[in-house]
Amino acid sequence: MKDLFAMILKTDNYLSGLGIEVKEVNPGSVELVIPLKESLLRIGGIMNGGAIMSILDAAGGLSVLSYGEKSNQVTISLNTSFYLPVKEGPVTVRARVTKKGRNVSFSRIELFDATEKLCAEANGSWYVFR
Predict the structure, then answer these.
(1) How many angstroms separate the CA atoms of 34 and 127, rounded?
(2) Is 0.90 surpassed by the pTM of this model?
(3) Half-sphere exposure of residue 121, counting CA atoms within 13 Å on the CB side?
(4) How many whole angstroms from its chain centre is CA 56?
(5) Residue 121: which of 42, 59, 48, 40 has the closest Cα?
(6) Phi-psi category of residue 71: left, alpha or beta, with phi > 0 → left and psi -120 to 50 → alpha
(7) What sign for the dihedral angle of Cα 86, 52, 90, 97?
(8) What confidence tens digit (pLDDT) does each residue in 74-100 have?
(9) What is the number of domains present in the chain?
């Protein structure tokens, strides 16, 4: 599953530019690592909020696919909270499924900076295709 997710992230036209690496995949959870490269920074040397939300969304989507029984997913909703600016990388993102349904699954995603401070989190729902 780890190799499949790495391939998805490298071949997706949008996500491939973010530099996301798959660290770990287990049924119901994923862990991703993202180098804090200049293209992800905004004025002030902090990580761009849009990039953060894209990465949280990708992690949540992968977490619902991590059971291996679905072929694809699309985001229904994603509620994001930002706590601290991300100034140091690499960034670690951990997503875990909180409720698995037949057609809709829910995930909680946390984003940490290089010092393991929680900088942002999201809760979302994904429609899954079989």
Answers:
(1) 25
(2) yes
(3) 10
(4) 3
(5) 59
(6) alpha
(7) positive
(8) 999 999 999 999 999 999 999 999 999
(9) 1
